[in-house]
Amino acid sequence: MGVALLAACSVETGGLGAGAAAPDTPGPSGGSVGEGTSGGVAGPNPNPSPAPEPDASGPNADSGDDADAADSGDAGCDADGDGVRARGCGGSDCCDADPEAFPGQQRFFARPTLCGDFDYDCSGAPEPEFGGAACERRVFRCDGDGFATATACGMMGDFVRCETDGLGCRAATSRLLQRCR
Nearest 10 degrees: CA dihedral of 75, 80, 85, 89? Predict the structure, then answer.
């Protein structure tokens, strides 16, 4: 008498590792990414999904503006590995020591770049996340959050949050760190 045995396995990683996807994440072909992988019944996946296309939107994307340092044979032209050549090599990376500083950076930071300034987006000047407060009533809300006085990048200041108060606005003040890019 033969007995068929179906083995199931569960992988416990304490979180998703690099390249892993949540079991219920929709895959590129409409099914779940976790279907037929090691999180389910053991065995080969009879319908593997194609490999995802690389993300072409980050600083490592080939924009055509800067020649790739690896392709040029001059690896010293991208010391921080962010995919943007240093200005000294004809590129546009304003701080080739810091991989967070590159043209087009959208995030704001509370600490200076490794080059000692806050020009993370290589625009030529640091851009503060918030300017001065100017609370103003709009149709259904109040706008104009900002710092009560000019606050330098990386410094704490009195931050004014404009809140709706009946038909007007009121200012709620708290301490906040000015981030820049």
Answer: -60
